[in-house]
Design a protein that fits this description.
With 328 residues, this protein is an alpha/beta fold. Helix content is 34%, strand content 29%. The structure holds adenosine-5'-triphosphate.
């Protein structure tokens, strides 16, 4: 049983943490990546995404814990582990004065692609990344979207099992973003991908699973369907002159949870099949609370993210939060 699981798991991160002096940038986090999967890492600035990516890629040593890539320990067996991974850092490591062909040839040599295979490999990778027409162009003269494609091409030239992409669409225009996302989905067919971003719709567009990092901790880890289920949660925004009784609101048929969001303002999570809007209005009128507003609202991804990372799960008392990360 264990063996079958191991075959599926491409990356395993076990109780990994990183300190910078007195600062703990990443606490003890654990997670895994299956082959053929795109895992999205979301988090606000400073949440610890880049630190985690750097540790995954063997660029930064963890203060504690173990990371294995395709069964190889990234610290103890780093050469083998690094053979299995391709990395596109936030700032792509491009030589702007080289042509695309020259640069990819250089990367293929660095990555020890055998000489006999190099030409064919580079031609295949260029095709894959939509670069076939620009092989002779100087990298510094390409548009940012094309430069990003070159960055992805260098990450996959040695056909790694794992590709790690740190904010791959930052600074691109909407058309370029679509193209890079399509490329990522295409690459996921035969590679495992870990993608860090703080662009929320990106996660929905390309990832199978998502993890949200907050202050160096994984505060949400689930598949995209679970995130979408959170988004489909319907809420009512209630605004009144006088404060209602919290428990009395909860007692209203169809009200699932209550969260105070300001003075006299409450967010009610409701059962959509048994919408309590009329009963809530009736309650406020009978109790002379001075009803100002009662507005139906659907959560968007931004709201879900803010709810999760402000660490207030009052809306979801049963919660899907995993403060110590998740296990396979
Ligand atoms: P961003 O989206 O802004 O890139 P991030 O989620 O990638 O943020 P990290 O860059 O991993 O976050 O940083 C996590 C924390 O560690 C931050 O508080 C940051 O200031 C701190 N940090 C990162 N690198 C170092 C370093 N080399 N020395 C000291 N502190 C660091």
């Amino acid at each position: 049983m264990m063996q079958t699981m191991d075959k599926q798991i491409l990356v395993s991160v076990d109780k990994v943490g990183r300190h910078y002096g007195a600062l703990t940038a990443v606490h003890e986090i654990s997670f895994y990546l299956n082959r053929g999967e795109v895992l999205g890492f979301l988090g606000a600035n400073g949440a610890g995404k880049s630190t985690t990516m750097n540790m995954l890629c063997g660029v930064l040593a963890p203060s504690h814990g173990t990371i294995t890539v395709a069964g190889h320990d990234i610290v103890k067996d780093c050469i083998e582990a690094k053979r299995q991974l391709g990395y596109l850092p936030e700032q792509p490591p491009l030589y702007r004065d080289l042509s695309v062909d020259e640069y990819l040839d250089y990367c293929a040599r660095l990555r020890q692609v055998p000489k006999a295979q190099r030409r064919k490999r580079i031609s295949e990778i260029k095709k894959r990344c939509g670069l076939s027409e620009v092989g002779r162009r100087i990298i510094g003269q390409l548009s940012k979207g094309y430069q990003q494609r070159v960055g992805i091409a260098q990450a996959i030239v040695h056909l790694p099992a794992l590709i790690v992409l740190d904010e791959p669409t930052v600074g691109l225009d909407p058309v370029q973003i679509r193209e890079i996302r399509a490329l990522i989905r295409d690459l996921a067919q035969d590679h495992g991908i870990i993608l860090s971003t703080h662009i929320l719709p990106e996660v929905q567009a390309v990832c199978d699973r998502v993890q949200i990092l907050d202050n160096g901790r994984i505060v949400f880890a689930d598949d995209i369907a679970a995130l979408s289920a959170r988004m489909s949660a319907k809420t009512l925004l209630l605004s009144v002159r006088a404060e209602p009784d919290h428990n009395a609101l909860l007692d209203i048929d169809g009200v699932i949870a209550v969260k105070r969001v300001g003075e006299g303002r409450f967010q009610l999570e409701i059962d959509d099949a048994n919408n309590p809007a009329e009963r809530v209005a009736e309650y406020t009128v009978i109790n002379r609370l001075g009803l100002y507003e009662l507005i139906p609202r659907q959560m968007d991804l931004e709201q879900v993210f803010v709810d999760i990372t402000t660490n207030d799960n009052a809306l979801h008392p049963e919660g899907t939060l995993h403060p110590e990360g998740t296990s396979p």
